[in-house]
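Look over this record as teaching material.
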Amino acid sequence: MDQNRYMQMALARAADIRTIVISFTLAHATLSIVLGFAGAGLDDSGIRLALAAWIVLGSLWCVAFMDDALQDMNAAMRDMEGFMDTAMGKRLEKAPITVFRIANVVIVALIVIAEMMAIY
């Protein structure tokens, strides 16, 4: 495959990451507003269950999507001829993708835990 194709794939996955980050941020910011102003509406166990399910399942989907995009970007950059000889490629080798994958899960888990505590 030519180098331009690898670059296009990496750019597409970077755009996917930006999209999921903004979607996750907007969704959880909206949820924070709902939790802040819901008042007696959260007394209904059905509403709490629906919010909890959305928080957990939506967050799992976001983590899976982000993890997949990170792995694809990493693979595309490593497949580019000569990329690993650049300063960015050398930086990529020093900071393994595993660190970012773990950080992604931990950050999302902390947000989910905080939201669940606010609901229950």
